[in-house]
Amino acid sequence: MTQPVETILAPHPFGTEITEQQLIENFRQCKLWEDRYRQLIGLARKLPPLADELKQQNIEMSGCENRVWLGHQRLSGGSLHFYGDSEGRIVKGLLAVILTAVEGKTPEQVLQAPLAELFQQLGLEQQLSGSRLNGVKSLINTIQEIARSHTL
Questions:
Q1: Which residue stretches of 5-80 are H helix?
Q2: Rounded mean pLDDT of 50-61?
Q3: Which end of the chain is flanked by fewer CB atoms within 10 Å, N or C?
Q4: Whose CA is closest to 71, among 124, 146, 126?
Q5: What are the tens digits of pLDDT across the range 39-48?
Q6: pLDDT tens readout for residues 78-128
Q7: Helical ranges in the chain per DSSP H
Q8: What is the pLDDT of residues 5-28, one digit of tens each?
């Protein structure tokens, strides 16, 4: 007997086709901020736009300069699928970085993922404005809250 196919809302290549190790290697080659900026724009282009019916108010992040949506679903195997979108290209690229690090992981693995350190490792943290850095921290906190809610 075959297992039913699970419907993934808003599939994307992050965490599967595009891995955290690939990100680190790509950003390591960037010597200038402009090169990192181009990497973020490229990542934003690879994150498919979220369908309008998924851009619900309950997954819209508050307090961000650009509109940002971050949703999730728990898959039958216990792992989490995160999806999102943003109206801003840089923010969408930053979201793609986070999705790469958390996609397909269990809630426990998400809680152990050193997300803030990833931004340091990619050379992004020191290049972001204070408001963008706060937005990244807010995304990370929301993802961790989601993971915590699935460990109870």
A1: 20-28, 33-46
A2: 93
A3: N
A4: 146
A5: 999 999 999 9
A6: 999 999 999 999 999 999 999 999 999 999 999 999 999 999 999 998 888
A7: 20-28, 33-46, 89-102, 107-112, 115-121, 130-149
A8: 578 989 999 999 999 999 999 999
Tokens of 99: 């999705």
Q: Is 64 part of the annotated catalytic residue set?
A: yes
Q: What angle do CA 141, 53, 80 make, to 5 degrees?
A: 40
Residue 110 and residue 80 in contact, taking contact as beta carbons nearer than 8 Å: yes
Cα(126)–Cα(12) distance, integer angstroms: 27
The residue from 40, 64, 90, 147 that is catalytic is 64
What's the confidence (pLDDT) of residue 62?
Answer: 80
Residue type, 67: R
Q: Which amino acid is at 119?
A: F
Contact 141, 64 (CB under 8 A): no
This prediction's pTM: 0.92
Number of other residues whose CB lies within 10 A of the CB of residue 80: 20
Distance between CA atoms of 17 and 10, rounded to whole angstroms? 15
